[in-house]
Design goal:
Layout (H helix, E strand, L loop, with lengths): L19 H12 L2 E3 L14 H7 L7 H10 L10 E3 L1 H15 L3 E4 L1 E5 L2 E5 L10 E5 L8 E6 L4 E7 L1 E8 L12 E7 L4 E5 L3 E7 L5 E6 L3 H5 L3 E2 L16
Length: 250
């Protein structure tokens, strides 16, 4: 199942799939390295070299173990086992992070502005980028343009207005295919004059409308771009009514 040779790594070149635990045991037998396996994580991924991995790595189908070894020797993708530890702890950490984020509620993280004779500094010291994998900045050409509603079942977002101000709305999704229109809408005004970061957990739809020209908003996402593509649900801006986007006369 695994071959020890002059290569700097261990390769499963059998046609039989291996569980993460079994693969770790094989690696331990060959290398005598320390094994760190979190048994609370059920890993059902394939550790065979399937056709998609062959395409990604440039490997070709081989008819014998010797052919496979010769291909691996020439490959630039050979892995080096410098640390001597085979572990699934990184996977465990990702699962734990996703579970923690999934339990969180809507939250406004307060920031502030410090001003002295040199200038001003906007900050949000209680924002720790927990679970963030990427960010992007959005700027509308018009204050009448509403970007809403975008829903996610797994992805969470942190929203921060770096310039200008905006109405940001969020609503909990009770049914992803046909959400109730009676759900309570949470409406926030975010502004660079009062720095705050809005956390929107999974199973929510959100959107925004800028209130000033040149308003700029940064979204910090807990999903990669590929993960987000399979977790994107759209609803019309007026699905929960138009009044949430209007400026209230007082």
């Amino acid at each position: 199942h695994a071959i020890k040779n002059n290569l700097h790594g261990i390769y499963n070149v059998s046609g039989e799939n291996q569980s993460l635990l079994r693969l770790g045991e094989i690696v331990s037998d060959i290398t005598d390295c320390e094994i760190e396996i979190n048994r609370n994580i059920v890993d059902k991924r394939s550790y065979m070299v399937d056709s998609s991995k062959l395409l990604n790595t440039g490997f070709e189908f081989k008819y014998g173990i010797e052919d496979a070894i010769r291909e691996i020797i020439k490959s630039p993708t050979v892995l080096n086992f410098h640390k001597g530890v085979y572990s699934n702890l990184k996977l465990a950490e990702r699962v734990r992070t996703a579970q923690t984020i999934g339990r969180k509620e809507l939250q406004l993280i307060e920031g502030g502005i410090a001003v002295d004779d040199r200038g001003s500094l906007n900050f949000a010291n209680d924002f720790n980028f927990y679970g963030v994998k990427r960010f992007y900045q959005v700027q509308n050409f018009s204050t009448s343009t509403i970007r809403a509603f975008h829903g996610h079942m797994n992805e969470a977002k942190y929203i921060y207005v770096t310039k200008g101000s905006a109405i940001v709305a969020a609503v909990k999704l009770d049914n992803i295919k046909s959400p109730s229109k009676n759900q309570e809408i949470k409406r926030y005004i975010l502004s660079d004059r009062h720095p705050q970061i809005l956390f929107i957990p999974p199973k929510y739809a959100n959107g925004f409308r800028p209130l000033e020209d040149d308003t700029r908003i940064i979204f910090f996402s807990t999903s990669s771009l590929e993960e987000s593509k399979g977790d994107d649900y759209r609803f019309p801006a007026d699905y929960w009514g138009k009044e949430i986007w209007e400026v209230e006369n007082r």
